[in-house]
Specification:
By secondary structure, the protein is mostly helical. It has one domain. The chain contains 2 helices and no strands. It is rod-shaped and about 200 Å long. It starts with a helix and ends in a 5-residue tail after the last helix.
């Protein structure tokens, strides 16, 4: 057993420079490679998390702005509908006014035409009445006059 311990001790003594070399290699790699890489990875993670947080904030802000724009757009649309409705009512009112004036003018023209026609009818009646009277007087004179015979009054004889 003493020989085995001696061999293990000799093996350990021969492996000591390798162990020291690996230890120094670990320290050198840690300082020159692992720490900078770990630092860079932490910075990337922080930058990524920061960028994600900023992206979430910007997305929330964009969503809020979108809601505001949608509300403003809806309000503008309603205002346009109100204006159209007001213009439509105004146009209908103006149309009714124009139609009313046209009806009144046509009724006035119709009354004037009827009055003119009545006056013409009355004038024609007076003319006919006077023509009838003069004709009646002529007929009465012709029939009642002493020197005329029936044959002469008729115009042409046989």
């Amino acid at each position: 057993m003493g020989e085995i311990l001696g061999q293990v001790g000799h093996l350990f003594f021969q492996a000591a420079p390798t162990i020291v070399f690996v230890f120094f290699l670990f320290i050198i790699l840690d300082r020159l490679f692992f720490r900078p890489v770990t630092g860079i990875l932490k910075q990337r993670e922080e930058a990524t998390l920061g960028a994600l947080a900023r992206a979430r904030e910007q997305a929330a802000a964009a969503e809020a702005k979108g809601g505001e724009y949608q509300a403003a757009f809806q309000a503008a649309r309603q205002e346009i509908y109100r204006q159209r409705e007001a213009e439509r009512r105004s146009s209908l009112s103006e149309r009714e006014s124009i139609l009313k004036k046209a009806r009144e003018q046509s009724e006035a023209m119709l009354r004037e035409a009827q009055d003119s026609l009545r006056a013409e009818v009355a004038g024609a009646k007076k003319e006919l009445d006077s023509a009838c009277r003069s004709l009646a007087e002529e007929i009465a004179e012709a029939v009642l006059s002493p020197g005329t015979s029936l044959g002469e009054a008729g115009g042409s004889g046989p």
